[in-house]
Amino acid sequence: xxxxxxxxNYKKFSIGLNFGISIPKGQFGEANSTMLPLANHSQDTNHxxxxxxxxxYMNVNFNYMFTNIIGCSIYIGTSANPYNSALFKSQIDTxxxxxxxxxxxxxxxxxxxxxxxxxxxIGPFMCIPVSGKLKAEIKLLFGYIFATxxxxxxxxxxxxxxPASFKFSFCYSFSGGxxxxxxxxxxxxxxxxxxxxxxxxxxYSEQPYGTFKNELFDIPKNMSIMMIEPTLGVSVxxxxxxxxx
Length: 245
Fold this sequence. Notes:
12 strands, two-stranded parallel sheet, mainly beta
């Protein structure tokens, strides 16, 4: 089947399932000891460093075509990114060495779980025939994101202010890729998504130890969350519509 056949016999609806990796960028991917949660020595008490590492990612998308090229997409994605607790602990060992020695030694530090990121997006997309079996895909989506900050436990009474809650934050996504059409119903997809957001954490689990700006920890803090997400996936198309020849 050639490209013109697909233009004249496109599908109105499609459902896609994609798997890949989530590469953290922005403050989400930083391991910066001058930012929170290393509060006692922090130079920036308004933002969190994420200490996030590359993790697993998946999404489900529902698409409706208005024409053979222009459509609308609903997109639900999630990722699980490990927390770099080893690097975080080494920074604590360095910055708080005096305090820990006075309180009986360096504590054991453990984190419970990973980051869990949820994405809920909607927006326009274009699906452009390139050849008999290939289509180029471009999406520009907007919606909301939420991100849980992993809880960190310490082996002493020493505690750092970790985010205890989160709220939904606005996000945007741009993606591009290709579809290889296997049949009238099935296709394989190769895409790269870019996600951008600024997550807000309105409260904390503990009052910070020894901080020089206690009053600043009662107001919300932010962390820019950016991710690059290369994926592979499949789609099922149905509801054919024929344009005029």
